[in-house]
Every structure is written in structure tokens, then in C-alpha cells.
Design a protein that fits this description.
Distance between the termini: 16 Å
Shape: globular
Oligomer: single chain
Strand content: 25-35%
Order of helices and strands: EEHEEEHHEEEHEEEEHEHEEEHE
Radius of gyration: 21 Å
């Protein structure tokens, strides 16, 4: 039984839907969005699906001055039978709730999150593309909207969800990407916001990513504050396959816990692979490469799912990963990508209960 009343105002100026071949990532938005407001006095109110439009916001809104902003990213997939399912929406709600606590924000309750998402997707289900490799990307966002000047948490918040039909995340498509090891800038520090999906984390990452792209690299590999240990690759978690062990950096407060990261760890362990969540130094990676033990490396995240690393470079070294015969990817990344995407699209059975169906 739904708890929230969510009316729908139809958009009278609907857009033409792009061809799947033209999607890219985050270039197009659907016709409607879900919105809900919060105030200390009223609690959550104003839940509705409305036409996609600019937000009206006071110039004194706390998000503009004090950075109270969180967002999430998840996807809806067209199933093999034509229905629509969302991949692990409760994980993203839990992560936003955790981040909201760190930023002193008011997170939407689970029933509001799920009912708002369901209501919006029912309206926009025609926007979910059909081709494998495509999806409807979902961007829930929480911002402080109270108008004031003074460093304190906002007493008012806006929660909204927008949708974007997407294809491949990187311009390289599904080809392995070249990654630059960043030894100057730092993504996150202990005690900071690194384990939250705060907008500020992404603003701070832009300069290093821009510098890497100017060198011909797709993204950067982030190191910790000591410039010794691996943290993330771009906006993704990262895995290194040493043959007898697959290693991903431990969640120690500076690394964002990714939903795809969890899925990869679970699937690898089901296959009997040894997966370690531990500190991983750059020197260990270089040593393993020199000894021939480093087989492949890949990033994991909602946007790209699995992104194989083709080259890992810095001023003083270059590691080029050799793909499996007959493919551009390594065998572990290849197998994981197929396994996860087959679940996404309902081709393989969802034995873990990761898919939440949308009933049209």
C-alpha cells in the first residue's frame, strides 16, 4: 500500500527520443522528474512528478554557498521480456542516507525514495532503451535550499530524481582505457568526505582529470595522501588481478563504497576466486608487473559497469595490459561484464534479488 500521494503533471512539450546509437552518457534527459521537499517544521511534503524544468532557487540557498549536495547513480534496464527493472535501488538509498548524516542533511526515507522512483519510471518507461549496452540512468539528488548566510546545516532540502537514457560512459566505448597515475592532487583525506557521494568530491577531482586528458589519458588513478597506496580510478573503484588473488583497496574512510564493487566481490568469491580488500601500494603493483604476476586491472561503477584498463602510466613508468586472445579485454573483466549485464537485462537469472521490477 503506497504511503505517499504522488500526483503527476504531464509535460505538454515532450521531446523526441534519441536513437540508441547517439546516446553517449548524460547528454539527454527525459520529459519528467520527481521532486519532494523537506523542512524542519513540516517534514517531507510536496511529492510529485512534474515536467523536467529548471529549478527555482533563492540565491542564498545553502547548496550554493556551503556545498550541501549529495547525489546517487543507478540504472533501470529493459528486460528480455520487455518489462523494466532497477538494479539495487536500496543500496543507493543506504549510501545517500549515510552521506546525508555526514553532511548534516535530511535524507528521504526509504518508502519515499522507492515510491518516488517507481512513480517517475512508470511515467517515463518509454525512455528505457532496448539495446544491450544501454540503460536509463537514474540521478537522485539531495540539496540544501534554505536561504541564509552563516555556516550551519540547512533547515530545508530538495530531493529530486532526473533520468537520462545512456550508452557507453567513456568516449572510447567499451575499449580499454588509458589511465594516468596522479601524484600531485589528492582525491580525499582521512576524516574528510571521500566515503560519501558528495558533489564536492567531484569538483575537487576535475583539475587532475583535465590534466590527464590533455596528456591523452581517459582518467586518473588516485593515490592516498602519502602518495603510496591505491585508492580509486577516476570515479570508480578499482581491482587488480594477480592471478592467484584479486585485490581491491579496503574501504578505510577515504574510498566510496560502490554498488558494482560489492557485486564484483560477491561474484568472484562465488567462482572460488580469492578476493582481498586490503591496502595496495603502487610499488606492489609495479613489482608484480615486473615479475609477470599482474594480469589485468579494471574499474567498476554504475556508469561503465566494468571498465578495463589498457594502460597505466606515470612520468617514470608505463604498464600496458595484454588482452586475452581474440578480445580487447582481460578474461576476468570479460567474464564479469557478461555476468553482470546478463543479470541487468534479465538474460541470466537474478539469484541474488538485485533487480527491483517496475510495474507499469
Amino acid at each position: 500500500m503506497p504511503k505517499w500521494n504522488i500526483p503527476h503533471t504531464a509535460n505538454k512539450n515532450v521531446k523526441a527520443q534519441p536513437a540508441s546509437s547517439a546516446l553517449g552518457f548524460g547528454k539527454f534527459f527525459t520529459d519528467h522528474m520527481f521532486v519532494a521537499r523537506y523542512s524542519r517544521e513540516r517534514g517531507w511534503y510536496g511529492t510529485e512528478v512534474v515536467p523536467y524544468a529548471p529549478l527555482a532557487m533563492d540565491p542564498g540557498a545553502s547548496v550554493l554557498h556551503y556545498g550541501q549536495a549529495l547525489f546517487e547513480g543507478l540504472k533501470a534496464f529493459r528486460q528480455s521480456d520487455g518489462s523494466i527493472s532497477v538494479f539495487r535501488p536500496e543500496f543507493n538509498w543506504k549510501r545517500m542516507t549515510f552521506g546525508a548524516g555526514r553532511l548534516c542533511m535530511e535524507a528521504p526515507p526509504l518508502d519515499l525514495w522507492m515510491e518516488g522512483l517507481d512513480a517517475l519510471l512508470k511515467v517515463e518507461q518509454a525512455w528505457v532503451p532496448k539495446e544491450k549496452g544501454t540503460a536509463l540512468y537514474i540521478r537522485p539528488t539531495l540539496i540544501g535550499t534554505e536561504s541564509f548566510l552563516g555556516v550551519r546545516p540547512s533547515n530545508e532540502y530538495l530531493f529530486f530524481i532526473i533520468l537520462s537514457p545512456v550508452g557507453a560512459y567513456y568516449s572510447e566505448g567499451t575499449k580499454p582505457v588509458k589511465i594516468w597515475v596522479e601524484k600531485g592532487f589528492v582525491r580525499a583525506a582521512p576524516g574528510g568526505l571521500g566515503e560519501t557521494k558528495a558533489a564536492a568530491n567531484y569538483a575537487g577531482s576535475l583539475k587532475a582529470a583535465q590534466n590527464a586528458k590533455e596528456k591523452g589519458y581517459a582518467q586518473v588513478l588516485w593515490l592516498d595522501v602519502t602518495k603510496t597506496h591505491i585508492e580509486e580510478v577516476g570515479t570508480m573503484n578499482v581491482f587488480f588481478d594477480f592471478g592467484d588473488e584479486v585485490v581491491t583497496p579496503a574501504l578505510d574512510g577515504t574510498i566510496l563504497e560502490g554498488g558494482t564493487r560489492q557485486v564484483v566481490i560477491e561474484l568472484l568469491r562465488e567462482q572460488g576466486r580469492k578476493v582481498s580488500e586490503r591496502k595496495l601500494s603502487l610499488s606492489e603493483i609495479l613489482g608484480a608487473h615486473k615479475e609477470g604476476r599482474l594480469k589485468e586491472a579494471f574499474g567498476t561503477g554504475t556508469a561503465a559497469v566494468i571498465s578495463p584498463i589498457g594502460e597505466l602510466s606515470s612520468e617514470d613508468f608505463k604498464i600496458v595490459f595484454k588482452p586475452a586472445e581474440g578480445t580487447e579485454w582481460g578474461p576476468t573483466a570479460t567474464q564479469l561484464y557478461k555476468r553482470i549485464t546478463d543479470i541487468h537485462y534479465g538474460i541470466a537469472p537474478d539469484t541474488h534479488g538485485w533487480l527491483t521490477p517496475i510495474k507499469g
